[in-house]
Amino acid sequence: MQQFAFEMRDISIRYPHFVMENISLSLPKGQVMGLVGVNGAGKSTTIRMLMGLVKPDAGQINVLGYQLPAQQVQAKYDIGFASDDMRLYKSQTLQWHMDFIRSVYPQFDPAYAKELLQRFELIGEQKIKGLSHGQRVKACLLLVLARRPKLLVLDEPTTGLDPVARDEVISELAEILRDDERSVLFSSHNTHDIEKLSDQIAFLDRGKLLALQDKETYLSSWSRFRCQLPADANTDATMSVAGAVSIKRHGQLAEVITDQNSAGFVAQLALAGFQVLEQHRMSLEEIFVANVKRSR
Amino acid sequence: MMHTFSNSQMIKLLILKDWQLVKKSLAAYLAGGVLIIGLMGMATPLLFNTGAILMITLMIVIGARSAIELVVNEKKDQTLTFMMSLPVTAQDYAWAKLGANLVLYLVPWLLLVAGMLLVIVSSPVYNGVIPLVVLVSVFILLSYCCYLATALLTYSEGYTTAVMIVTNLLLNGFIIWLLRMPAIHLTLEAPTASWNNTSLLLLAAGVGLIVVVLLATAVLQNRKTSFL
Questions:
Q1: Which helix (H) or strand (E) holds A80?
Q2: Residue A231 contacts by C-beta under 8 Å, 6 or more apart in sequence?
């Protein structure tokens, strides 16, 4: 019985202006992975390779025990995919789409679909062209969730949603995650959603995997220190501390960010003459920005 | 998990889906076709020729709308991602698109051609025009196959439209060329249809080219490894 919802090993792909090399990513069954990165980092490319929509130049991909892209048909019966650039047929109603999906997937649950219609406040007889952006996003999610896939792959599922709609979607995802057999991979710019739902964080930047760790370990490895420098410190000198991602000086004060938060780092600060005034846990958004700036 | 649906079933579902998307407009076009056939059946040269021009236009419009709406727009309107999330490969999807478009064009095309031929044989219109009608209809079918192939291989509205324009211009030239051929021209006012060597050769060449275009499209589609 496979342990992983998916495994990507040594994946490489080359486009004229973009390269991804030797990316290895895996998600244990029943877990949630948040895929984080700036625009153009490679999140959508990674997701598309996982869905068999794009063939990598090298490497192996296994999803729910199936090799991709060779066995993508079998895999896709158990994968629910929705992306922010996915659209439905404007001239048709939501009910038409539900009937179509029901004809494709034997495991489509009409009762659950009806429940989601009510929860998302959607009308089955309404044509897609009459829906707002938020309603369209919810409609796509309904079509995916109603067939109870084993793996949910969501590319920017909450982009463009108002706070209420986003909360509805996130709540529904959280509900799904109570089922230990279901796994979720989702990419988002909204780091609050990722922080709320994910068990694991994967951080991509410019086609490289900068980090892949469980959320708590990742978040606690980062820290921001507000420090006082000694009175005789040379204000023009460039200071460095082993393990520091960035050091910003404001006169005799300095803000130090590290991704190696530990007693050892605090000792390093003391050795460098930094007196720690405050230490703050960083949010995923702050880590996101610091990590990207570091790699530039 | 063993799934009850094989991929031929998925391909059928996709073809059925495309039929549901265009059935209303197809019904409208066929209704228009019936009116045009009625016009042609009035049997005066002016009304017959007017009807013929309208029929050519209708056949082109049916093909153009089908290629653009069912193929090019699928990428443009971003419904392609929705389709690709289904349990299909690039090749399955390509076969479904080719199949759907051919069926959804051939059925009205055959009905309209049959309708025209029925009007010709059952009215005072000279049966000698039958080879001309058939050859022009086959040329229109060949044109459709060319821009369908372009649409399927490129998903580009620009390229598809360019091929449509070129084939439509060639159609005019083809009709003029046909009318200047003695083997066609001299038999137009005959009481019976004259299928001579020239007309049969042209028919065979037209059908042969259609087969070549479709086979080439299928082969090139089979090589696609990604959709997006």
A1: strand A79-83
A2: A252
Q: B56: helix, coil or strand? A: helix
Length of chain A: 296
pLDDT band at B6 (very low <50, low <70, confident <90, very high): low
What is the spatial distance between Cα B102 and Cα A171, in angstroms, rounded to a whole number?
Answer: 45
Between B10, B20, B89, which is nearest A104 by CB? B10
Which range scores top for mean pLDDT: A97-106, A158-167, B73-82? A97-106
pLDDT tens sequence across A195-220: 888 999 999 989 999 889 999 999 99
- Which residues lie below 8 Å from residue B153, measured CB to CB, with a gap of 6+? B217, B220, B221
Cα separation, B178 vs B182, in Å, equals 9
**pLDDT at residue A237 is higher than 60:** no
pTM, to two decimals: 0.86
Please indicate whether, in this complex, the C-beta atoms of A54 and B78 are within 8 angstroms of each other.
no
- Look up the ipTM and state it: 0.85
What is d(CA A94, CA A76) in angstroms, rounded to the nearest whole number? 21
**Residues A200, A205, A210, A216: what is their CA dihedral angle, to the nearest 10 degrees?**
-30
A77 and B1 in contact by Cβ < 8 A?
A: yes
